[in-house]
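This follows on from our talk about sequence and fold. I would like you to pick a protein and set down its sequence and fold. Go ahead and set the record down below:
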Amino acid sequence: MRIQDVPHGLNVVIETGATIYIGRFDSLNGFKALLHSCDVHPIGAGEDVEHYVRDAATYGVNVTQGDAEVDVLGIKSVRLLRDVPKLA
């Protein structure tokens, strides 16, 4: 999925090289994606990124920041949080 295709108001998971952003997509402003009610999480060495994302899908977004702007050119992947499998 491309960030340009995400509908307004849906929760998304955006992965860059060093950070995971989970939040409610608002809009694109030039080369920045604006998210609200976000969890901005730096990826640690050896961290299981998929488990972290699945935890958010299961238990909800741990809001650590009200708003976040993500540089569109640095995005590695985008997916809807609702499409992420929940933990068993």
Remarks:
- The beta strands are 11-16, 19-29, 32-42, 65-71, 75-80.
- The mean pLDDT is 96.
- The first helix runs from residue 49 to 59.
